Queue: 2 jobs
Job 1
Amino acid sequence: MGDRIKILTGNAHRDLANEICEDLNLQLGKAHVGKFSNGETSVMISESIRDMDVYIIQPTCNPNVNDNLMELLIMADAIRRASAHRITAVIPCFGYARQDKKDKSRAPITGKLVANLIETAGIDRVITMDLHASQIQGFFNIPVDNLYAEPQIIKYIRKMIPGEKVIVSPDAGGVKRAKLISDKLDAELAIIHKERKKANEVSGMILVGDVKDKVALIVDDMADTCGTLVSACEMLISKGATKVYALVTHGVLSGDAVKRLNESSLTELVITNTIPHAEKAAKCSKIKTINIAHTLAEAIRRTHHGESISSLFSDTNSNSKNNNKSSMKILNVAEKPSAAEEISTILAGRRPQRRDGFSKYNCVWEYKCSPVLGQNDVDMVFTSVLGHLMTTDVVPPYTNWTSCDPIDLFEAPIHKFIDGENSTNLDKTLKREGRRCDTLILWLDCDREGENIAFEVIESVRAVNRNIRIYRAHFSSIIPAEIKRAISNLAQPNKNDSMAVDCRIEIDLRLGAAFTRFQSRYLRSKFEINDDQPISYGPCQFPTLGFVVERALRIERFVPEDFWVIDVSHQKKADGEMRTADFGWKRKRLFELAPAFIFYEQCLDNPLATVVDVNVKENRYRPVPLTTIELQKLASKKLRISSDETMKLAEELYNKGFISYPRTETDSFLPETDFMGLIRLQTDNQKWGGYAQSLLNGGFVRPKEGKHNDNSHPPIHPTGAANALSGKQANLYEFICRRFLACCSKESIYGQTTVTIDIADETFSATGSMMIQQGYLEVYPYDKRYDKILPTYVVGETFTPSRLELNKSRTVAPKPLSEPELLSEMDNNKIGTDATMAQHIKKIIDRNYVIKNEENRFIPTDLGKALIIGYDSMGFGFSKPALRAKIEADVHKIATGNRKKEDVLKDTIQQYKTLFIQAREMSHMFDITFSNYFRPYGSQFRILQANLSKCGKCNNKLDLKSTDDARRVLQCKTCLASHMLPKVGDIVPYDGTCPLCNFQVLTITSESGFPYQVCPNCRNNPPSFFKESPKPFHCFQCTAQCPLARGSTYKPAAPKQPAQPSTFKPKAASGSYKLPPRSNYNSDNNRRANNNNNNNNTNLNNW
């Protein structure tokens, strides 16, 4: 915005002021607003504002209306005396607005008084929102911009409130506002006439209009005590409204308002954040918030630049078309190059002009488009990214595995940055194009991940154009109708969704990095694991792996049992042919022969069967619309396509405009869906076009409604005709088309007959079925139905069975998990999202934790099995879904605004840090588990010297061994731990132990005769206080209280402290180097020691 603007605020609503500044990419100005000891208001402007355009964000609202008003007036006076160029008061909620006329004798017109005070204080302009009475603007002799919340309210209604709606004005004064909203939503209008005894007290209500079987939406400018609002809600419910919502600009919520709301039938009270209400919203789940920070920020930006504010609401205030040509230039960004091309072609009405970007994969499209944001002939520039533009990681040196203890990663600083050549080139393209544009429209995928990418794009563009206006396009498929609807209903990007993704990424990064480094280093140092890649941990991949291992262990531990069952069958002639009925025993099976044989003998003694019941019923079924999870499960089961490949193919079909957005949890279509238009697209297909035509000719039935709705995207369905596809892509497209047509078809109806018979007081039954109506099965071959026709029986009929046998069988172990079963487990336990589940499955395959057998079922590898059993033996439940489900629930609360990102991060990371500490303390459980699957590391190594030195963990002896590639390693037979040593030099035990880890120190003499000491444990795992350089770590680098330690920050013990144990007396060494006496460790000697160390760097680097 430039350096001549300043935003200041009092204490009325600092959160809103911060959000406005964030939107404008400005820092909130420095001002102290408090109270003197006698209660008077104290104001101090803490920075220069001379000749600046100053905006004071200060609603004069409850609970401290008078304090807020005085803060505004005194701040204005201070700013005027500080020589500001212009002062604008941004008063989102204008206090005393209801006292706008003299309705009684001797009553004040306080609204006029407040206007006079504001002018007298030196304020040059006022920006407010939804004044209670528009005539208040006439009280001022300075410009007043009255903004409207209706556009945001209309967008909320369209996105969040389904069903047939009726807009209700709570009184005659609000009819204009209600009529405007009803016209925009094409909804009916109703009016409540109120008869008041006095302020905030209504004596009676009369409803004008029809609300029966509709969703009633009460719209008003203010909700104060909510008494009238609740009464209106109850009246609307009594008149037949299915639900009642209230949408209000200013949520005053005084007195017992929250209590009344909680006890009312109101579904939601939707209010803007013109007044702070976080505490009240926490006490009432019905309160939802619309953020108007961007509207106020845009008004400030336009005021500062001398632009029109009324055009912000031109679509709200007028239905006339703007035929003026525009010089506006808009940068558009999609998530993929194919999406950018398809959307550009739709908006341009032809193939647009193409030019190169800095990335060879992402070009730039240019064309004219009308109308956009109320302007015609807009210059459109359209480019794309390739998923995430930025990478999140810990900062150096923590990226180096040897630079820190893995536990440090729970609190190490992290950053988001552009990484890699292609991302750098994409960033250069965004910056180049962003400099030339005044508006940015984000066409990223409409999910949380897409929202996060959107804010990465915003960060890139705002780095070179701080004043660029930003909008978000919401669409569910790349077809003309959807894209044109999106460009006409632009909104703001959702910061909460983006923060939710940032939180999840940081949690996964910290947990994954810490546990991966810990288990990789620990397990590879102890066992021969023939895989060079890291032994990775992921909070989603481990529960996913856990489901597979749990099933595998059930199979391993399964003990088959014999059981016995009585089988009965009867042959009978029907319709000229012999038919067989197989009757099943009601007891199912018995696991002991003796009682089974007794029942069998009873039946043999009296084998006459009597028909006791014949039950006939119809089974009706047709599928519900398709969600992402169902698509993945069915594609794996019916088409033999993995979930990961399914999502890639679906993305390609979506980017080509053939199907709707493939990531959705919704299984119900909106009422306004153009089913006939979608079906008509399929009539030319050679395989199912004829069936599609039959639906248009009268066979259409509206799809069933499922039970899930993410309020973002419709179910997956075809949006275009595709006749030139091949392979798996063609198969998947065919499945989606047939599923959609099946949803629009009649039910399949099967007649089911169950015949129950009695033999010697034992009950048996047989079931047969026959198709009555094929219905959707005519177009949907993926569901199989088979006729099984029984002979005809009547109640009371008797017969002798053709077969009566006692048969023995054995229980069978369950099969390994299939991919549809694994997806169901993940979905039921909230492991990942519909968009990420396939990635988690692919990851456990790529990590070699599971493989697929010839039946396409998951089998855990020894590594995958050992990891899960090892952690489960520690009692943490890492393989169980509860921990991850809690993370997903908290992330969802961030997205909905019910939790702060910082709080979720703090709680989650602390919880897992505690588990990490416990895991390291119980790492011996890994030793027990992995020894069942892997050989100890170094078991094949050649022993150079047995029992060389002492282990600091178990006090047993360590063996010096040589690896196959001539490396030397010190290994403990008890702990199974291995410690790498230098390749060259003589190694002898030193007469002393390390005070940090209790390992016996070694003396190593280089080929040049220089002796030095190392602790075998610290050499490979440097102390946590040592940050200067990576491994290997030598004793002379240490800063601990030890005579061998001579680090640059080493300080000797205080004179009164006892000397170090005598165990540190060195043996005679062959070299000329001698350890100085402890008393000589002064600063000069430290410097000389450091110089000696530096002089020998050439040798040390080889070690």
Note: The two ends are 57 Å apart (CA to CA).
Job 2
Amino acid sequence: MKKPFMLISVLPMTAHISNDADTAGDRTGRMPEEYAFKNKVLRLICFILFLLSFGLNSVFAQVHNATGLVVDENGQPLIGVQIKLEGTTTGVITDVNGNFSISAKKGDILLFSYVGYESQRITYKGEKILAIKMLPNTELLDEVVVIGYGKQKKNSVVSSINAIGPKELAVSSNRNLTNTLAGQVPGLIAVQRSGEPGYDNSEFWIRGVSSFKGGTNPLVLVDGVPRNMQDIEPDEIESFTLLKDAAATAVYGAEGANGVILITSKRGNSQKPKISLRAESTLLTPTRLPEFMNSVETLELYNEALNNEGTASIRTAEEIAKYGPGADRDLYPDTDWLKEMLREHTYNMRYTLNVRGGSERARYFVSGAFYQENGIFKEGKKNEYDNNIGLKRYNLRSNIDFDATKTTLVKVDISGQYLQTNYPGTGTNTIFNSMCRTPSYLMPAEYSDGTIAGHPRPSGNRVNPYNLLVNSGYAKEWRTSIQSKLEVNQKLDFITKGLNWKGLISFDADMKYTAKRTKTPTQYLATGRDENGALQFKKVVEGSDVLTEKLENSSNKKIYFETSFNYNRTFAQKHDVTAMVLYMQKETQYHDNALPYRKQGLVGRATYGYDGRYFVEGNFGYTGSETFAKGFRFGFFPAMGLAWYVSNEPYYPEALKKVVNKLKFRFSIGRTGNDDTGGDRFLYRGTMKQDNGGYNLGFSDTGGMGGIGNGITEARFEAPYLSWEIEEKTNYGIDLGLFDNRIDLQVDYFNNKRKSILLQRNTVSNVTGFQQMPWQNFGIVKNHGVDASLTLNQKIGQVNLSARGNFTFARNEIIEYDQVPQVYPWLEKKGTRLNSNKLYIADGLYTYDDFIINGEGLNRTYELKPGVVSGLSSGVRPGDIKYKDLNGDGKIDSNDQMEDVGNPTVPEIVYGFGFNAEWKGFYVGIFFQGAGNTSTVLGTGADATFFPFQWGIEESAVRSVVADRWTEQNPSQNVMFPRMHSNNFQNNTAASTWWLRDAGFLRLKNIELGYNFDKKLLKKLNIEALRFYIQGNNLYVWDRIKMWDPEQGNNNGGFPYPLNRTFTFGLDFTF
């Protein structure tokens, strides 16, 4: 560029010298004519060259190579910032050090944009080096939210939607994504009942339970495709969105009644490859385990129970003392089954590797993960196989986006999960059940000489729990899941601006293979010792060490297809219009079913927004189901929503805006549907039973009964008029931003009604001749409540503080129920809540004053005084539970049970709150999760594992809490357990308010401490980010049950596979 400048500047000077030479030849001053002409020509050439020189100099002066550095609010370089020349397609991105270089000229407008930061518009003035500082904008982080079949600007959303990101999902080291959701999102109720690896899914509902039949789980879509979510690696997730009201879920038609969960995986972007690696090592220990009585306490308690019934003790004090300290544990065991069979702690590990990057035309996100978890069971010392629970999971994902043309975007996604699990030969529920039903005095886990110990009187429930764990073999399970998706987005601006078409097809396959190798070994009972001190045995179980094998497999495949036209355009910078019409079809084929499950639907949506202030949306889902007959097969599910962004009004006071900078009201109404019948299909067609005994309708070839037609009767009665279960939904919402969005609040009130519930009638009389109860649309359930979320952000000096919380209250009520009219109002299901308790009402314990007592000691007899109500069982005495006689007939029976006592087993209130602080790279976070308005009834459904001696002393491991009981020496009403009995005594074990407990709790869910290394230091090592952290989960729980983790309910008497308390050390770096 410099050479032309020099040449052009010299030429006029040369011409000037030549001109002087010419004039020197004419001393008289008169110019010859030919020279005059040449002089004019030369001057004209010089003038033209001068103009050319000026123009070229101007052009070359305008074009520059603009270079610069982009940093964040802390002065740290930002990678991947997009810089574009306004009005052109020219653009670049910053490198790993935040540097960029772009060709520009003075006056050009440079546009700087980066996710989560305010865009900047810079006029280039010819600076040699540009220094750009990007400032974060919390509003831009969620400017666009994921909605049903698309995305939408957050300020235009009229429906009830909540979203969380990877940071919130990473609060737990748990493998299962469903177990990290409790307390995280308003409107979502999640309860984890088991900690067993591979089978630890949480139950979850959106805005509570709304049906007394099946089909209450929400629809889950991963990248727009119906899929399971429990084994998705959290590091793969970009956003997790909850759709709650009709305006958000009606587009899903038949599957939107229970709410919708949308999970979006991460995708690539236009930047140099960014590699992220995370490694975690975790220590696990059970949150809470029950405690049991020792042998001496158990045997003394059983004597007490016998004495209470007027029976003499079966063991003397001297005999019981032999089981005390210092005893020969082979002959007088005191076995602590938990100590013998469970570890105090175990461990798991997780490694994830992500690569993210791409060019302007092609972008990619590739992820791989490995997770390993070990169970809390102990392994057998002599086994050649592993009897502990163990799980290994491998995750892979590849999301690729490429621009086939300037108007065509193609997305190709492939992902998969491979799980390998190991289990004992006996199911874990059976093992834990046996631990609760085997007393410590019966046998050791294993004899000291290694001989396998057996139960003295073996039977189905009378076993050695240790043998079930260690000596029953093992099982292995392999689960493979593959998901694939192809999506094409085509802009159709040549038809009209803002129009585009999308096509999507996915194919998923799930396979499961199980190999179970089991045995029942020969078992012995020690009867004494010989003169040499060696144990003497008798055989109690004849078995074998040969492992028998059982193989099983299952599989399914799913195909999903979707095509849509979308329109998005803004007119006159004030009128925002969007529209969508979509067709979907899906098919699921199970290996053991000849016919695939199919469903298809048509979806439509239109929205209009005016000037960022007024918004209206209408949408519908039109879905067809194979369950119903023609004429009833398709359901139409419309919804509409309105929103008013008050704070965007021109008349909104500026003074108020400084305090309430965002004020938005929302309203939606609509209906959704449900066709879930629990697997029953084609209900409009009747079926026949072919082996119904006693219906000898045919004749054999010998003339006798039987033969063709024998045993054929009607089975399922056809239901040609069966149709959709409908849920009508109404939602009122308000969004508030206070003090420049430092405080953000969202509150929603919902009122839903589920009607025409799909069920088999219970109240059809048997005299009608139905072999199966007919299907019908019957029943109404109302569900209403409030959910809310709150976030706070504040910076004090160099300390960034934040807090968040959410709250959900959801209460249902049965309006119509399939029940015959009841004699007494307290027996009516109508007006009660789902999952509520039907209980007898305890009125304390019987006292001595309630009886006429004759005799002494074991010969005492007890007769109830006149006017004192009798018990559920005959033979009640002081210390047994007394019940209220609700109908006043002088006796206690089923008419004295009351519906909806206490609170439901599914929490009506779920909440979570947490706090975070950051300072110079250090950060700390704490999160609490809680549940309220929920009850449990101790012993319900598992009386033999909770109540002492339900099947006698040989099938009862007594809980330590039984020490708090009524005795003749302690005839108190303020005890936990009533009078002891030596066998099942229904009066004291029936479900009643005596055993009703508040199951609400507050859990310290997570604490995390970490440090982010300084980026300037890392830059020298070519590392973008590096952090290490220590994390604790399920650290403590405040509750009123105390005996077990309250979240697990009372399954197996509160002793299923326990939940885990975890301590994690992690390292996360990006380069």
Note: Confidence is low (pLDDT under 50) at residues 1-32, 48-61, 138-142.
